[in-house]
Amino acid sequence: MSEETFDFRSWMRSQSGPYEADFSDPDHIRLETDYAVAQVNFYDMDPDPEIVEFHIENKADGETKFFLHFHATEQDHATGLFHEMVEALTALREQQATEVLLCCTAGMTTSFFADRMNQVVQTLGLDWTFSAVSVNEVYEHGADKAAILVAPQIGYMADRIAEVMRDVPVLRIPTATFASYDAAGCVEFVRDELRRRAQETEEQAATQLTCETKSAKRVLAIAVSMDGKGARLHYRLYDHGEITLSETVIKRRVTIRDLTDIIDTQVCSCSGKVNADVVGIAVPGVVRGGWLELAPRRTHDLTLGKNTFDLGGFFSERYDIPILIVNNTNCAALGWYGSQEEAQNVVVYSQPAGWAFGGQGIVLGGHLVEGAHGLAGENKVIVDEFGFSRPLRFNAYNPADVLELVGKVLAMDVATVDPDVVCLSCSLLPNMDEVAAELDKYVPREHQPRLVRVDDYNELILLGVMVYCLEKLKAKKSQR
User: Fold this and answer.
1) Rounded to whole angstroms, how far apart are CA atoms 224 and 375?
2) Does 3.40.50.2300 match the CATH number of domain 98-200?
3) Cis before 47 (ω within 30)
4) To which H or E segment does residue 31 belong?
């Protein structure tokens, strides 16, 4: 079967797997299991190749687990993505158990209680599992759980845990239930609370920031983000500064080909028509002149298996429009700076949970500071040289340890660039008053920058990509 005559629908009909396939509507094919539904949608884009959409939805909570668009013109690429989708669909079977984490001072008392609750749910035939950790480990192990149960003896810490673990319900175990070891009663308590919270939850669209722009250019902004659950590609089309398209690719691992799929389906057509004047891609890692220094990992490979790769050159050979590669935290700094008019000297600091070091974007006097070698704001260059109060026990999931790290980095910021504002993206440190108190150890309060908590880091990045691209186009025009 040649590439030119590849019939994706017929090929899918020839496949089999752990799913029930429904081909009754050839443009909307369903692959269904007991726990999830995969949808393959075809959209006619005549005269361009049709666009194929893959979408997996978890039946338990309606959450999207896999989502992307691409042209099915190359057999190997299309079939590879199909197999990747089926693999993600199959993997959801193992993720269906409702996992609940208990915590107390040392984890001993709750371990016995968790064992009793596991016996109860086994008797009831519920696909639930309970485990227990000490309160110091809850931030490391609680992020992917259905709920976190806090023992009465540390009930006063529940609000703090909930403030950090904002996406996970944090419940205080009723004292009478815990004291009497009423495991069945606690299981029912958890079930009732999760039902109640599910009914109260309403989807809220992410806040979309804007900045003043008079440019008539169209910018496709792409942001690469990664966390413990996998990788994401957020992309947005700005036309005259207004958002006309906003989507997210959801996969367990993103590659260069996923970037080209976005550009091919959203920007370039076979007829020569383009829907953007420039594409900006924000990536983690060190960026210099289009070269990206970012070792491949389980969640990503943007460098074709290498540690350093000319990503800008790769795209310039493939497309006729400018495609700019920029560090994601630099874009976040530009995004925050562009969304306000008061501060001229801004640092945006991202310190992800579980990372020994983060990164910073720096805007001074309204201008982005990238440095001679793209290393401006790369904390990894210096953090290993810091002296810590617990050097052999540093835990990047422990808020106290991370607070010490952030305080030292901010002291360095004050000493080197003295910013007006520091915007901090760190889920483990939601309270900026605590961060300021830590900085008091090094810098008098009157000399400290204003501290702002960042809740939607990717929103800042996308806006910053647009700002970065427009500035580069403007600079290139002025040089002519």
Assistant:
1) 19
2) yes
3) yes
4) strand 28-32
Percent of the chain exceeding pLDDT 70 equals 92
pLDDT at 106: 87
Q: Quick one: 155 exposed, middle or buried, by C-beta within 10 A (0-12, 13-18, 19+)?
A: middle
In this prediction, residues 22-34 reach a mean pLDDT of 95
Q: Which segments of 160-310 are extended strands (E)?
A: 170-172, 218-227, 230-239, 242-251, 254-255, 278-283, 286-288, 291-293, 300-301, 308-310
Distance between terminal CA atoms of the chain?
49
Percent of the chain scored above 90 by pLDDT?
71
Q: Give the tokens for residue 315.
A: 């795209």
Domain boundaries defined on the chain: 8-95, 98-200, 218-478
- CA 95, 98, 100: angle at the middle one, nearest 5? 120
218-478: CATH topology is Nucleotidyltransferase; domain 5 (3.30.420)
Burial of 427 (0-12, 13-18, 19+ CB in 10 A): buried
Same fold for the pair 98-200 and 218-478: no
Q: What is the pLDDT of residue 144?
A: 83
Q: 201 versus 149: which is more confidently predicted?
A: 149
**Which H/E stretch holds residue 182?**
none
Distance, C-alpha 279 to centroid of its chain: 20
Instruction: Report helix angle 311-318 to 256-266, nearest 10.
Output: 40
The single-letter code of the amino acid at 169 is: P
Distance CA 434, CA 420 (A): 19
Question: Residue 204: what pLDDT?
Answer: 47
- Give 240 or 416, the one with higher predicted confidence: 416
To the nearest whole number, what is the mean pLDDT of the chain?
Answer: 90
Distance CA 391, CA 388 (A): 5
User: Taken in order 222, 379, 362, 339, is the CA torsion positive or negative?
Assistant: positive
Residues 452-480, mean pLDDT to the nearest whole number: 89
Q: What is the pLDDT of residue 270?
A: 65
347 beta partners: 362, 422
386-443: pLDDT as tens digits: 888 888 788 899 999 999 999 999 999 999 999 999 999 999 999 999 999 999 999 9
CB count in 10 Å sphere of residue 345: 18
